[in-house]
Amino acid sequence: MTSEDTAADSAGPAPAHDELDVRVARELIDKAREDGVSLVGPNGLLRQVTKTVLESALNGELDDHLGYEKGDVAEKFGVNERNGSSSKTVRTDVGDVRIDVPRDRDGTFTPQIVPKYARRVEGFDDTVISLYAKGLTTGEIQAHLADIYDARVSRELISKITDKVVDDLNSWQIRPLDRVYPVVLIDAIHVKIRDGAVANRPVYIAVGITLAGERDVLGMWVGTGGEGAKGWLNHLSDLKNRGVEDILIVACDGVKGLPEAISALWPQAEVQLCVVHLVRASLRYASKKYWPAITKRLKLIYTAPTIEAAEVEFTEFCAEWEDKYPAMIRLWRHSWEQFTPFLAYPPELRKLVYTTNAIESLNSRFRQATRRRGHFPNEQAALKVLYLVIKNPLKNRSNITGKVVGWKQALNTLAMHYGDRLDAQH
């Protein structure tokens, strides 16, 4: 064993990277305290460290470009060499940092860490887009960046940064879709958009469940007026044009004429009325003091084991409430044909189609992102925010996108009912 080996053994194992990171951080903080330097602020430690790291990285890039390190004349070849530096201010996550960018005599050096003409280091734009997706207005983002990062950013720049997602949005809106979707959930929310005057406009949303059991937002479209079957027909046609040839089950609310619009596009699709929508619509006709009793009886109908059992429960429900609330009973009779399909399915499939809860969870996040804005200047601004909500999912919100729990069991049930149509996919 050599003396070097002995020394290495006595020193113990090499510290892990995390330990080194902590040690370096502590040394920097201790040094800052000794010198009376604050961590943040124009001359704070974080900005000094950021400046050092960026300049070191840029000099390393120039070393690679020239083929030798600064001062290492022996390794130098060719006539190109360093030619001083130029100063520029870049925006980083710790605020504006003034750095010196090295140059070469031939002018052929193209930095990658801080590209030419770039005024922002990667990460800044992501921060702005993330704040925008969370519902902050351009003014609120401007104030946030000034307060937290001490960065003075105009609203126009913020708008330009968020406009970077428009190309992605446009591509997403025309992307090809699967040929067959076992389940599609459709709904609409309303947002305020200025079109001459500020008005409530419907945004139609379709969420599909793929054969692999993945939830996917298939499309969003801004309507011109109140939510209606004609608007749905126009926008659902977009799904068909993008490749959707068949849907097994469509879960939707009770918009008049919507089932007919769905059948016109996909004649074999079963239309399942969202039970949650139906119950809510029922309660609008009843006094609030009767809501608990009504919902208890309605639950006996939509959890009945068979269609025949549901009909028995409905007959008893009518006997109890028709004299008092005839409009509520008429609503159920009118909706019965679209309400009952899911009663033919076992529990694992019923949960997927009797309610549009998954899409309503998405709508809840949409409302959070749009509530603070008051209104949008145009349709694109509204869709931009909603698209960012889809692309920036929150933790623990897998019911919006992602895998359906218990999908294999549900798929087996679907295969028993619609085997030929599922097989045609392959």
UniProtKB/TrEMBL annotation:
Presence of the UniProt keyword Metal-binding in the record: no
Record GO biological process: DNA transposition
One Gene Ontology molecular-function label: DNA binding
Alphabetized InterPro entries for the sequence: Transposase_mutator
Record key words, sorted: DNA recombination, DNA-binding, Transposable element, Transposition
Region (Disordered), start-end ranges: 1-22
Function: Required for the transposition of the insertion element.
The family this protein is said to belong to: Belongs to the transposase mutator family.
Protein name: Mutator family transposase
